[in-house]
């Protein structure tokens, strides 16, 4: 799953896509309403690809959890983040049974499902395998096109020489100048 360029900004609802970078800011576009605005270096910006969820043994990257949700829902939307807290916790337990219940708060769980659904609605939730499969298929198609034998023509082909005509109109009274190869002798 590709989450490159998708960020969360503390204090602003939703997710944002990085469009361009400046000296002291980045231009971002909201995934909800497609409005663009600058996010400054003083804002608390978190890249989704760097976010992980605590488990009992290690940290699990957010993209792996999104893949689990995507698989569980067969590519559909997940449970709404506005559901009852008990439903959200039980849903997360189905996906990630060993998450750290002391360090993962209900607000984190709500963000997880809200972000997943937002990425799903905006069309930015694409599994890497799907992207890789389409790249491989496209490469195979171009390879097949290149490997098709060209039709042979009988006889020898003579190179066709064409003279390029100038697009500029000739001025009246202008003389035609031709270049000829002349031999020069040095030492005159």
Short overview:
By secondary structure, the protein is an alpha+beta fold.
Describe it for me?
This protein has 188 residues and is of the alpha+beta class. Strand 6 and strand 7 (59-61) form a beta hairpin. Helix content is 31%, strand content 16%. The chain is globular. It is built from four helices and seven strands. It has a domain at 6-122: Arc Repressor Mutant, subunit A. Strands 4-3-2-1-5 form a five-stranded antiparallel β-sheet, with no helix packed on it.
**Shape by Cα distribution:** globular
The chain-level mean pLDDT equals 78
CATH topology of the domain at 6-122: Arc Repressor Mutant, subunit A
CATH class division of the domain at 6-122: Mainly Alpha
Q: How many distinct helices? A: 4
List the strand order in the largest sheet: 4-3-2-1-5
What percent of the residues sit in helical stretches (DSSP H or I)? 25-40%
Class computed from helices, strands and strand pairing: alpha+beta
Flag low-confidence runs: 130-136, 162-174
Q: Sheet with the most strands?
A: 5 strands, antiparallel
* CATH architecture group name of the domain at 6-122: Orthogonal Bundle
Give the end-to-end Cα distance, rounded to a whole number of Å.
Answer: 78 Å
SSE ordering: EEEEEEEHHHH
């Amino acid at each position: 799953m590709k989450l490159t360029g998708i960020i969360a900004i503390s204090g602003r609802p939703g997710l944002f896509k990085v469009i361009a970078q400046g000296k002291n800011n980045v231009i971002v576009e909201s995934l909800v309403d497609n409005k663009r605005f600058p996010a400054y270096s003083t804002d608390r910006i978190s890249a989704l690809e760097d976010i992980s969820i605590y488990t009992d043994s290690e940290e699990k990257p957010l993209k792996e959890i999104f893949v689990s949700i995507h698989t569980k829902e067969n590519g559909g939307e997940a449970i709404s983040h506005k559901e009852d807290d008990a439903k959200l916790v039980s849903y997360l337990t189905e996906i990630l049974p060993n998450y750290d219940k002391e360090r993962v708060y209900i607000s984190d769980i709500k963000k997880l499902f809200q972000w997943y659904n937002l990425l799903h609605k905006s069309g930015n939730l694409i599994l890497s395998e799907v992207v890789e499969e389409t790249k491989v298929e496209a490469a195979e198609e171009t390879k097949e096109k290149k490997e098709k034998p060209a039709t042979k023509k009988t006889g020898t082909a003579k190179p066709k020489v064409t003279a390029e005509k100038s697009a500029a109109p000739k001025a009246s009274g202008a003389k035609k100048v031709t270049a000829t190869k002349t031999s020069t002798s040095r030492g005159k």
